[in-house]
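[Meeting: bench + compute handoff]

Bench side (C.D.) handed over the final construct sequence. Compute side (W.E.) agreed to return the predicted structure before the next meeting so the bench team could plan truncations. Sequence as handed over:
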Amino acid sequence: MSLVPFEVDPIVGSDRPVVATDPATGEELNVETGFSADDVKEAIRRARIAQSYWAQVDFAERRAVLRDIMTYVVEHQNEICLASVRDTGKTPLEATYGEILTTCEKLRWIVNEGENALAPEYRTPPAMLFLKKARVEYHPIGVIGVIIPWNYPFHNVASAVASAIFAGNAAVVKVSEYANGSRAYFEEIFQNVLRSRGHSPHLVQLIPGFGLPTGQTLVEECDKLLFIGSPITGRHIVTASRKNLTPVTLELGGKDPFIVFADAEFDHAVDVALRGVFTNNGQNCIAAERIYVQESIYERFAAAVAAKANALRQCTLKSGCTGDCGAITMDGQYNKVADMVKRAVEQGAEVLAGGEPHPELSASGLYYRPTVLGNIKPDMDIVTEEVFGPVMLLIKFTDEKDVIEQANSTPFALGSSVFTTDYAKAERVTNGLVSGMTTINDFGVGYLIQSLPFGGFKESGWGRFNGVEGLREFSRIKSVVTDRFPLRTKAPAFVQYPIPDHAESIVKEAVRMIYAPTYGGKFRGLLHMLKVLITGKR
């Protein structure tokens, strides 16, 4: 255990107020003052001091810290879930598996596998350098900046923090201004564990504020940034990163296709489609926003999902009912969902379920009814724009070629799902989909397999988190070459200064000897090289 000095006075924000509101009731939760540019710089200064000590901590202690965090999470599930529910409007069940289960599995995987992921890797040198050995090392970067959205206010923090600190870094996290009510409590969880083990609490800081100046300053001043959000904000992040060439990892959402072939197990596909669309009220980067159904089963499928969507319950936590779908977290998103549904209907979409605010709950909360839209055409705006809300789009397709073309037609490429009992067909379609992830006959379970990297392509961003790749994203990668034996290997005389006249010929024949495609060519190269070495003539 290390006893690390740290400043006890908290940083008090000096920017404008950040007001936290319960989206289910409209009740104000708290008001904090956002961080100014100077406040962010001070947080990073403290984080750098903490990280300079933490980088020397061995993996055994890093594991112990993560185990203590996991113990707290397991023993305080109710408190964490309640904080998330009040901040976001999600249901208690959604908080339990979206905040608790995913976080515990992330911590478990890093504790069990993280050291192996960051251990030096030995690489094979070419035969001509047989007296050398080579390896790749993974070192801490420094201060990792993290900017997260509001949909999973605990897990988004815990996931990034766990990877960052296990890799030997500090983490400064700007939480969303739309889910700031839980910020202080969640920060306390990490900092109390660090204090209890003799480490500086400044290693992990959750800071309040807005995109400007808080987020921009964090991008400019940190050593590496992870951003989870929208493509629009992602572009601003990249612009801000130009000042100091801050490397960034971007996860910018999706428009994930969910493909159902006629030979799929029908009831299973229906049930999973509902989960894929309405989990967390659709406020999920890998939500199944486009449901492609083969035309021979389209009508039956549409009737089945519409009937179930119409039966989904919505209610507030105070009413004592758990509900199937919660509230939308922020006013802007609520209005965006309503506007996108309205435009889709104007362009010819058919409302099969929902399509409107909840008749009672919307009076005080941001409740929009779970919605199913049929008769969706590829040229509709809603097919290519991310909804991020409780809206299922039903789209017909004819065959494999047609559905692959439609699925790949949007600017996004994050996740995807394929449903069929023909696994050869599933693999063909999977191979044709441009996406960072595909799940066959299920939805979203890849995220619980924490050994897998998470991320996408195109406007869904670049870089990965989770898995070996995610830990290494938070590492400074270094190549090292040393002597295989305690003998200093010197370069041959013909490449030492001053360079002899016949050096060029020797090197050319050596290239022929090593790389010629036939043994005869290699042998001729060897003979010619020996001749030049012996005679000294080109």
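W.E. noted at the follow-up: The mean pLDDT is 95. C.D. will use this when planning the next construct.
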